[in-house]
Design a protein that fits this description.
This protein has 342 residues and is α/β, with parallel strands linked by helices. The protein has helices at 14-24, 58-71, 115-124, 192-204, 218-225, 238-250, 266-270, 321-334, and strands spanning 56-57, 86-89, 100-101, 106-110, 128-133, 154-158, 161-166, 173-178, 208-211, 230-235, 261-262, 279-284, 289-294, 309-312, 337-340. It has eight helices and 15 strands. Strands 11-12-13-10-9-14-15 form a seven-stranded mixed sheet, with helices on both faces. The chain has a four-stranded mixed sheet with strand order 2-4-5-6. The chain has a two-stranded antiparallel sheet with strand order 1-3. It binds zinc ion (ZN) (2 copies).
């Protein structure tokens, strides 16, 4: 599948990604490394170049980025190494030791980086695949009422599409996102939301599971991977709905469906970043039936099957118990079945 952001080969099927993991970030016998203190400035303007195997220890990559930030006048040289930004690996998965990075495996998120520094990072640092200028907010449609316009980070150079590998009780899922448009979900050994969904499905065995605020689709696709016969994913934010659909495609070989039929594409969806009435984005049918919609979860009842469904409401503002309670009550007044917050 061609990457809709850069046109490259960023998106690969889940089995290929999972198969590459065991050795992806490990060193060869010749790889050298030094562990740098992230809380102090980089001493000297030195960084090691990649090993002949093509990999380089993450701290050296950070040293390289630090030097560019000094040369570009963003740093004075007194900033600690960690001020370079947040390294997001591609593909990201739970790791017990720091990685040796192959080419094209890192998206840098930084609130300080400039356009010219970002260009240099993508051109001169082989491990960097994309540079995103971040802000002190969460990107996407984070207001449950959809009243506040969504905000996004800015992709300054390269491509910010990256995958995370999330373990589930039925096996791993590969979940792609566009980093400047969606919030960061870090793959952990234990994912409480996935566990909560699995526990719920095991005790209820529903015919339909609805992931009503799906984000990139992790929880809905977890239900699908557990063999739930009917699964519906939905999100009001175009990027979430689009990547949910892409992730259905990427993980289709774990499901009992035929081909995934995409009904839209990223450019078309971007014209209506936030939708109210649900629009079908992708579907796959077979022994299992899986559909992805772009719309407000409050309107999703219009396209749901006329039978009880098990709904997962993964609302962004869970801490606001009054609004969460309202959302659950409104859902229940329209949709038969049960609803739970993971
Ligand atoms: Zn790309
Ligand atoms: Zn090496």
């Amino acid at each position: 599948m061609k990457c809709p952001v850069c046109g490259g080969e960023c998106i690969r099927d889940a089995p290929e990604v999972i198969g590459s993991l065991p050795s992806l970030f490990s060193r060869c016998k010749r790889c050298t490394f030094r562990v740098l203190d992230k809380s102090v400035p980089l001493r000297g303007r030195y960084f090691a170049t990649p090993c002949e195997c093509g990999k380089r220890f993450i701290d050296e990559v950070f040293a390289h980025l630090y030097v560019i930030m000094v040369e570009e006048g963003i740093f004075s040289g007194n900033e600690p190494l960690r001020a370079v930004g947040s390294p997001l690996l591609h593909p990201g998965f739970f790791m017990s030791s720091p990685p040796f990075l192959p080419p094209d495996s890192l998206v840098l998120l930084s609130p300080l980086v400039t356009g010219s520094a970002a260009q240099r990072m993508v051109q001169e640092v082989p491990e960097v695949r994309g540079v995103v200028r971040s802000g002190d907010f969460v990107p996407g449609a984070t207001d449950p009422s959809l009243a506040k316009p969504p905000r996004t980070y800015e992709l300054l150079a390269g491509c910010d599409v990256r995958a995370g590998v999330f373990p589930t009780g039925a096996g791993p899922l590969v979940i792609y996102i566009q980093q400047s448009r969606m919030h960061i979900e870090v793959p952990r050994l234990e994912n409480p939301k996935i566990t909560s969904v699995e526990r719920h499905l095991a005790s209820h065995s529903p015919a339909w599971c609805v992931d009503a605020c799906s984000g990139a689709g992790t929880l809905g696709l977890c239900a699908a991977r557990h063999g739930i016969p009917g699964v519906i994913l939905n999100d009001a934010w175009y990027a979430a709905a689009f990547w949910s659909a892409t992730n259905l495609q990427v993980n289709r070989m774990f499901l009992r469906t035929g081909e995934v039929r995409m009904r839209s594409n990223l450019d078309t969806m971007q014209e209506h970043p936030v939708r109210q009435d649900p629009v079908l984005v992708a579907e796959a049918t077979g022994e299992q039936s899986i559909r992805v919609y772009h719309g407000d979860f409050r309107q999703l009842w219009k396209v749901l099957p006329e039978e009880p469904v098990c709904a997962v409401l993964d609302l962004f503002e869970k801490s606001d118990t009054r609004r969460t309670g309202e959302a659950v009550r409104e859902w229940k007044s329209r949709v038969p079945g049960e609803v739970f917050i993971p």
